[in-house]
Design a protein that fits this description.
Radius of gyration: 15 Å
Bound molecules: ligand DLZ
Oligomer: single chain
Structural class: alpha/beta
CATH class of one domain: Alpha Beta
Number of helices: 6
Shape: globular
Length: about 160
C-alpha cells in the first residue's frame, strides 16, 4: 500500500522546510467529528512542531465533507496571505450511493480549486469502508493522516514560495 511505503506520519524534521513564516488554514467537516478533530489535531501539532506559530493557523468548520469545497474557496478569498489550506473530512461507506457522490464531489471540487487558485489545498479526506479504518488512520495503527497533510502543506507552501510564477 502506498502509505506503507511513504508514511509521512513519521517525518524527519531536518528534511522539511521550517514553517515559521508560513500561515495555514484548516477547514474541518463536522461529520464524524471525533475523527475529524483527531485529524485536525494531528495537522495542528505537526505545523507547530515544524515551526509554525499557533496564531498563524486558522480553523473553520463546515457541516459535511461536501461543504469543504465552498469552505476552502471562501477561506482562500478571505485570507489571501495564507500559504496553504488543508481540508479535513471523513466519508464512511454506507448502504446508499451517497458515499460515492460525496467522495467524487469533494475530490473533483478540491482538484478544481488547485487548478483555479494560487493557494494550494491539501486533501485530508478519509474515504473508508468502516469506522475502524478511520480510527486507524486518525492517530491509530496507520498513523495520523492529519500529520501527513500538514507535512504536505508545508512542502507545497515552500514550493509556492520558490516558484517563479
Ligand atoms: C449526507 C452525508 C452522508 C450520508 N455521509 C457523510 C459522510 O460519511 N461524511 C461526511 O463528511 N458527510 C456526509 N454527508 C453529508 C454531506 O457531506 C453534506 O454535508 C450534505 O450532503 C449536505 O450538502
Amino acid at each position: 500500500m502506498a502509505t506503507e511505503n511513504k508514511n509521512l506520519s513519521e517525518y524527519d524534521k531536518t528534511t522539511i522546510p521550517n514553517a515559521k513564516n508560513f500561515r495555514f488554514g484548516i477547514v474541518v467537516s463536522e461529520w464524524n467529528d471525533t475523527i475529524t478533530n483527531n485529524l485536525f489535531q494531528g495537522a495542528f501539532d505537526a505545523f507547530v512542531d515544524c515551526g509554525a506559530l499557533k496564531e498563524n493557523i486558522v480553523r473553520w468548520d463546515v457541516p459535511g465533507s461536501f461543504e469543504l469545497i465552498y469552505g476552502a474557496k471562501k477561506m482562500q478569498q478571505s485570507y489571501d496571505m495564507l500559504d496553504a489550506i488543508i481540508v479535513v473530512g471523513v466519508v464512511i461507506q454506507g448502504e446508499t450511493k451517497h458515499f460515492d457522490f460525496v467522495c467524487e464531489g469533494v475530490t473533483q471540487g478540491i482538484k478544481d480549486l488547485n487548478i483555479q487558485s494560487d493557494i494550494p489545498v491539501i486533501f485530508c479526506v478519509l474515504t473508508d469502508n468502516n469506522m475502524q479504518q478511520s480510527i486507524d488512520r486518525s492517530g491509530g495503527k496507520h498513523g495520523n493522516k492529519g500529520t501527513e497533510a500538514a507535512i504536505a502543506a508545508i512542502k507545497m507552501a515552500q514550493l509556492r514560495k520558490d516558484a517563479k510564477f
